[in-house]
């Protein structure tokens, strides 16, 4: 009898755990006896994954925290390398976490182990020199977005665009009133605007006050407007409520979490740049994207970033589909003006048609496509 297929996987974040679990499930549909081991989260372990280390040990962010944890991270990576080379898997798959996984993939590939990287780093936007290392490190790159695949083809890196898992899950909601009722939001026909200032302390500190002022200015022109803010966690909830204490007359509801449901309930969204812009697109919600950061950080990033746009809707459309108000351009006046514009029925209809076309492009059943590509590499 043939030996069961063995797959090594390393996942460092919750989002990667979701992708890894979907990939395992899809591979098991074709090879029920397949084995999976390395580092994964609860969702992957529920699929029978053997995790050698706690996934949370890899979940570090920022510039200082990874340096503090560097000895431990290097020790974990060394032990992974030793175990995988001692008993090589048919394929090693690094899911996101490029700073950790690409070095491991590079070393494993030099030892004759086939390697896949699932979720492209933003090499197309900045630090494009990384493409040379990626070309040496991977036998196959799996991308969630089509323009990423085009970039890799231009640099002769084997690549497969598999679609985005969010596009397989999210679609416009028909009964907005039912969603509003579940969230205890205004259920009549008043226009509801979702305000998403970000999930990090610095984002809310820099972007939040601009959004509240913009809401007040828009309210002067359309007094029937109502607003809702989903706070990412308890800390952001307290921070947002403290900021809003200075605006007692603003008709705004603050809820903890449930950002996807909040956007589904809204007529339009004003939001910080991030993955949530893709969620808003898939839900068919017109949006204004605003972002501010510390002046020094912005000055550095402005020199490094090569892409024309920062929001995923514009990157996917390769045109200014939604307004992007960045740094000094993100003023309350500009946000209010753009918000009132996208609330107009004609603007909403055009945007929803564009968003629908992009959603169809991204909805490919990503886990199944990724599994198919990995198994083709094995064979």
From TrEMBL:
Pathway: Bacterial outer membrane biogenesis; LPS lipid A biosynthesis. It comes from the Bacteria. SUPFAM superfamilies: UDP-Glycosyltransferase/glycogen phosphorylase. The keyword Repeat does not apply. The keyword Cytoplasm does not apply. It catalyses: a lipid X + a UDP-2-N,3-O-bis[(3R)-3-hydroxyacyl]-alpha-D-glucosamine = a lipid A disaccharide + UDP + H(+). One of its GO terms (cellular component) is membrane. Belongs to the LpxB family. Condensation of UDP-2,3-diacylglucosamine and 2,3-diacylglucosamine-1-phosphate to form lipid A disaccharide, a precursor of lipid A, a phosphorylated glycolipid that anchors the lipopolysaccharide to the outer membrane of the cell. This is Lipid-A-disaccharide synthase. It comes from Halioxenophilus aromaticivorans. The lineage of its organism: Bacteria, Pseudomonadati, Pseudomonadota, Gammaproteobacteria, Alteromonadales.
């Amino acid at each position: 009898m043939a030996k069961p297929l063995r797959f090594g996987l390393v996942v460092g974040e919750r989002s990667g755990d979701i992708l890894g679990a979907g990939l395992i499930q899809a591979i098991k549909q074709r090879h029920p006896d397949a084995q999976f081991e390395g580092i994964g989260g609860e969702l992957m372990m529920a699929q029978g994954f053997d995790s050698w280390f706690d996934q949370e040990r890899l979940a570090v962010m920022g510039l200082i925290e990874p340096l503090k944890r560097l000895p431990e991270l290097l020790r974990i990576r060394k032990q992974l390398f030793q175990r995988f080379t001692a008993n090589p898997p048919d394929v090693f798959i690094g899911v996101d976490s490029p700073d950790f996984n690409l070095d491991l993939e590079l070393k494993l590939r030099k030892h004759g182990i086939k390697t896949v990287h699932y979720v492209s780093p933003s090499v197309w936007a900045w630090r494009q020199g990384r493409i040379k290392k990626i070309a040496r490190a991977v036998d196959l790159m799996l991308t969630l977005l089509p323009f990423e695949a085009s970039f890799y083809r231009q640099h002769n890196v084997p690549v497969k665009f598999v679609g985005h898992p969010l596009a397989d899950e999210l679609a416009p909601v028909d009964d907005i009133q039912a969603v509003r009722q579940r969230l205890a939001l205004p259920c009549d026909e008043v226009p509801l605007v979702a305000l998403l200032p970000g999930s990090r302390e610095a984002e809310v500190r820099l972007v939040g006050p601009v959004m509240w002022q913009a809401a007040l200015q828009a309210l002067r022109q359309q007094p029937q407007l109502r607003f809702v803010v989903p706070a990412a966690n308890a800390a952001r909830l307290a921070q947002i409520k403290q900021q809003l204490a200075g605006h007692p007359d603003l008709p705004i509801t603050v809820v903890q979490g449930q950002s996807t449901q909040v956007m589904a309930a809204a007529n339009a969204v004003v939001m910080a740049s991030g993955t949530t812009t893709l969620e808003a697109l898939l839900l068919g919600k017109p949006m204004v994207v605003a972002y501010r950061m510390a002046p020094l950080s912005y000055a550095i990033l402005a020199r490094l970033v090569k892409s024309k746009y920062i929001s995923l809707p514009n990157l996917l459309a390769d045109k200014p589909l939604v307004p992007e108000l960045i740094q000094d351009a993100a003023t309350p006046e500009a946000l209010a003006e753009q918000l009132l514009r996208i609330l107009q029925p004609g603007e909403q209809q055009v945007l929803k048609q564009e968003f629908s076309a992009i959603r169809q492009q991204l909805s490919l059943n990503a886990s199944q496509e990724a599994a198919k590509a990995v198994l083709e590499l094995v064979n």
